[in-house]
Amino acid sequence: MQDRLTDMAIGNVLSNAVNIGYRLNLFKAIAEISSPENPVLPEQIAEKAGCKERYVREWCNTLACGHVLEVNEEEKFWIAKENLESLTTDNFPLIYNAMLTTILRPIDNLIECFKKDGPYGLDYTVYSDFEEMQQMFAKTTSEGYVISSMIPDVGHGIQEKLEAGIRVLDVGCGGGLHVRLLAEHFPNSKFVGLDITQKAIEAARLVKKSDGTAFKNVEFVVGDAGSMPKGYTDSFDLVLLFGSCHDQMRPDLCMLEVHRVVKPDGWVVVTDVDGSSNVHTDRETFGKMAAMKYGGSMLHCLPVGSNAPEALCCGSMWGRKRAVALMNQCGFDDVEVKAMNCSPGSVLYIMKK
């Protein structure tokens, strides 16, 4: 066990070093000026990245000893060809290493939540720049797949309805990434993005089409998913929740509101982290990724979803059994569950009012 604990500590150090390299574009700097045939000194990397040589040298030394970077006897560095894409393009593991620091920042506050006499949970605001990093993470995991894969996976004629023109609500829209993707691809449909965070909605309202022009079929609203505007009753053909259901302190109130605002015969699609509602099954099914899933829930999703005495404290690994049971209780009798082909480890809950 001591060896395992040591490996965990080393992994933590390397993860933080990877985050530094990602945030400062150090990997891209190395890739641009070096090769296996032409390795470079830390001072060259620092000059290219606009950083101090001494700090960059220690960073290079750390990642070379961790076999992330390559190094020779002259203490010159390069990235192995097989690692170039992983270290220089946005991808799930790279972004997740960067995002970890934002959810670890309030670790002292989280420790207090564990104590019997401690607070119920944590407010979103204590995670400071998590919102921005989460949007980058969503962009990496969603931008190339929502239109090409997720919408077709939903089935039930939803794609055709979007093409013809329907009214769509994105609950917990954050910075508006999914609304932007859908609204640009399906210009005949009208989209409303709702989020409780003023900062997120302000950012979403700045969103433009890929050609830089303004959207005419998009509206963003600050609002509570558990108490949406009264005028929304029976007004949406499709309601979407992209990973936002489990973060609610009262996801039952959220889904009751979703049931109210979707039209009769309208559809609801919820994306979420895949889980069985049994940790042993999850460990056997997902292997080492199960630890990352539960860890992400422990560090962020559980505390923000527990921050009130009446909170249900679901966490992101509440799993299929618990999620379907809650959706049934909120009026959705027939919930279809599908694995997401475009996002391994995620799941679709599809239901009709």
TrEMBL record:
InterPro entries: Methyltranfer_dom, SAM-dependent_MTases_sf, WH-like_DNA-bd_sf, WHD_Rv2258c. It holds the Pfam family WHD_Rv2258c. SUPFAM superfamilies: S-adenosyl-L-methionine-dependent methyltransferases. Residues 163-281 form the Methyltransferase domain. Residues 17-88 form the S-adenosylmethionine-dependent methyltransferase Rv2258c-like winged HTH domain. Gene3D superfamilies: Vaccinia Virus protein VP39, Winged helix-like DNA-binding domain superfamily/Winged helix DNA-binding domain. PANTHER family: METHYLTRANSFERASE DOMAIN-CONTAINING PROTEIN, PROTEIN CBG10435. This is Methyltransferase domain-containing protein. It comes from Caenorhabditis briggsae.
